[in-house]
Specification:
Blueprint: H1 2-16, E1 27-37, E2 41-42, E3 59-61, E4 64-74, E5 79-85, E6 89-97, E7 100-110, E8 113-119, E9 126-146, E10 151-155, E11 158-173, E12 176-185, E13 188-193, E14 196-202, E15 206-215
Antiparallel strand pairs: 1-4, 1-15, 2-14, 3-6, 4-5, 5-8, 6-7, 7-9, 8-9, 9-10, 9-11, 10-13, 11-12, 12-15, 13-14
């Protein structure tokens, strides 16, 4: 979390050195530090993986803070489209069964998200908005090994799901905004053993962000 806050402060310092533009345009770029809080819901083990070794909701994906950049285009004062981008993020994975917890490895995910937004007060100093859209997540670098169960696990590589958003842009000066943003993104993947599904994990993270926006 400290690394993410340092990243935002650096962006603020850089923005202060930039000359302000006289008029707002149709484009807006935001840079945020975003805290990812996974829901950590999962099915009990099935097939070749006994549910006593993998109870329901026992797969835990680590929370973390990441950098995020999004690009928005305003079709009208109220209506905008936003594309949210980052680079592949690494998450640690563990299995919790009763009082026992086993770290089983990690994976990376790249989750670009496209949202359609409605901005309620486009001319005010405080500009709340809501959004809804779609997320595509690409999962890679899967390294999952349960020594307790004695198996190597794999994850489905692609996930498509919905996304909901609410946020607020607070105008600091010409073309410069402080942004607060919260999103719920639906991400899930089948857990596989030797190519066969043995569970499903629903990451479904809540993403809470703070950052700066530039309108041009």
């Amino acid at each position: 979390m400290k690394r993410g806050l340092c990243w935002v402060l650096l962006a603020m310092g850089s923005a202060a050195a930039l000359p302000a533009l006289a008029a707002e345009g149709n484009w807006m770029v935001r840079a945020r530090a975003v805290y990812i809080d996974p829901a950590n819901k999962s099915e009990a083990g099935s097939g070749a993986l006994n549910p006593t070794l993998l109870p329901a909701d026992s797969i835990h994906v680590s929370a973390k803070t990441i950098p995020e950049v999004d690009i928005s285009y305003f079709f009208t004062k109220n209506l905008a489209a936003e594309l949210i981008l980052t680079y592949p993020q690494k998450h640690k994975v563990s299995i919790t069964s009763g009082p026992l917890q086993e770290s089983i490895g990690s994976f990376k995910h790249l989750p670009p998200t496209l949202l359609l937004q409605y901005h309620f007060l486009p001319d005010g100093r405080f500009r709340p908005y809501i959004g809804a859209g779609i997320n595509y997540t690409r999962i890679s670098s899967v390294k999952l090994r349960s020594n307790v169960a004695g198996v190597d696990l794999d994850l489905e590589r692609d996930s498509v799901g919905g996304a909901l958003q609410a946020g607020l842009d607070m105008k600091l000066g010409d073309n410069l905004y402080l942004n607060f943003d919260i999103k719920k993104v639906l991400i899930d993947a089948d857990v596989k053993l030797n190519g066969a599904k043995v569970s499903k994990v629903k990451v479904d993270p809540l993403l809470v962000g703070i950052g700066l926006g530039w309108r041009f």
